[in-house]
């Protein structure tokens, strides 16, 4: 069997078409949705992500604000910028790009973002709402994975979802989302991580396997059940002298071998990647709708 590909570009285009309509409705009612992104320091990957977020805002006709601060920025200076954004009526959502320089306490920064503008869904208030099944915002990457499953017609109700990785950004919220009541969830969820004994014994039971660990091609074909749906969140740059750049991106799954066993699979790049920004935009539109008194 060769697996059907689930492509983030296709799924995100579908969602962007819906968002464009909501943005037009907001504009007609006098609200231009606005997203701000704050970047501290020189991390090259972060600069790329921040640029892409700004470009997507513009492509959707939303207001975009990028604040770039030097590596030496103090925590108090950053908190002052956050306070300004919390109070800015033209900005409906904003985020501070992680990772932050070591001298800044990321938790203090996350806690300073007004929950109603927390479009990354990192604030404990929003994490708690999501866990309780009454989400306001959804965490972007796991929500993007859920949309990929729903919009590809993957049945999740009663299925065994195994999540590999337990980070606050991907693994934990992924598990929380899939165990909620309702369509596109209602799964039986197992979470495995670096301390799990005999990890493959769990992954082999997965109807839906979501892998987010940051280890190139860690999941091999013998770790996957025949016909499983495999979602590879991992993004790892590996050296490849045959590639013009000398390196290329691979996922956490051994794609070439696993695609012969799975029924559906996401490639890297081109799989989950585009979904994160897409769900960030969805959260921003949602925040603008709430600010404008239009409920969605
Ligand atoms: P973290 O480093 O925060 O967490 C990694 C998790 O994987 C931890 O829970 C860790 O376990 C677990 N882990 C690490 N090694 C192993 C192992 N050998 N066996 C089992 N579990 C292991 O990473 P993130 O969750 O932030 O990201 C994971 C991957 O997803 C990365 O490649 C990242 O680049 C990618 N990513 C992609 C996104 C996108 O495409 N849009 C968005 C976000 C992330 P433990 O807790 O025990 O240490």
List keywords for this structure.
single chain, six-stranded parallel β-sheet, binds NADPH dihydro-nicotinamide-adenine-dinucleotide phosphate, 11 strands, alpha/beta, 296 residues, three-stranded parallel β-sheet
Shape: globular
Strand content: 15-25%
Number of helices, where a helix is a run of at least 4 consecutive DSSP H or I residues: 10
Provide the succession of SSEs.
Answer: EHEHEHEHHHEHEHEEEEHEH
Q: Please bin the fraction of helical residues.
A: 25-40%
Structural class: alpha/beta
- Strand line-up across the major sheet: 1-11-8-7-5-6
- Report the end-to-end length measured between terminal Cα atoms: 41 Å
- Largest beta-sheet details: 6 strands, parallel
Low-confidence stretches: none
Task: Report the mean per-residue pLDDT as an integer.
Answer: 97
What is the count of β-strands? 11
Radius of gyration (Å): 19 Å
Molecules bound to protein: NADPH dihydro-nicotinamide-adenine-dinucleotide phosphate
Task: Please give a structural write-up.
- This protein is an alpha/beta fold and 296 residues long.
- 38% of the residues lie in helices and 16% in strands.
- The protein has ten helices and eleven strands.
- It has helices at 8-28, 44-59, 75-87, 106-112, 124-131, 140-151, 171-178, 199-203, 255-258, 273-291, and strands at 4-5, 34-40, 63-69, 93-96, 160-164, 188-192, 208-211, 229-232, 236-239, 247-250, 264-265.
- The structure holds NADPH dihydro-nicotinamide-adenine-dinucleotide phosphate (NDP).
């Amino acid at each position: 069997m060769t697996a059907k590909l689930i492509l983030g570009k296709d799924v995100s285009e579908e969602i962007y078409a819906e968002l464009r309509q909501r943005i037009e409705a907001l504009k007609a009612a006098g609200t231009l949705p606005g997203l701000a992104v704050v970047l501290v320091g020189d991390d090259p990957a972060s600069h790329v992500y921040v640029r892409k977020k700004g470009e997507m805002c513009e492509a959707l006709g939303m207001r975009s604000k990028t604040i770039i601060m030097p590596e030496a920025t103090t925590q108090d200076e950053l908190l002052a910028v956050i306070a300004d954004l919390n109070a800015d009526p033209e900005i409906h959502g904003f985020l501070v790009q992680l990772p932050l320089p070591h001298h800044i306490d990321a938790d203090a920064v996350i806690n300073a973002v007004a929950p109603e503008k927390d479009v990354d869904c990192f604030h404990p208030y929003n994490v708690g709402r999501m866990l309780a099944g009454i989400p306001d915002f959804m965490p972007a990457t796991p929500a993007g994975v859920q949309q990929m499953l729903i919009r590809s017609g993957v049945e999740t109700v009663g299925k065994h979802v195994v999540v590999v990785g337990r980070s606050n950004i991907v693994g934990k919220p992924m598990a929380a989302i899939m165990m909620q009541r309702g369509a596109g969830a209602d799964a039986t969820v197992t979470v495995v991580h670096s301390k799990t004994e005999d990890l493959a014994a769990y992954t082999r039971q997965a109807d839906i396997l979501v892998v987010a660990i940051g280890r190139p091609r860690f999941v091999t074909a013998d770790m996957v059940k025949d016909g499983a749906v495999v979602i590879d969140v991992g993004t790892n740059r590996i050296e490849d002298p045959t590639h013009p750049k000398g390196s290329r991106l691979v996922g956490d799954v051994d794609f070439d071998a696993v695609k012969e066993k799975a029924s559906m699979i996401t490639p890297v790049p081109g799989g989950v990647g585009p979904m994160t920004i897409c769900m960030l935009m969805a959260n921003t539109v949602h925040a603008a709708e709430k600010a404008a008194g239009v409920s969605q």
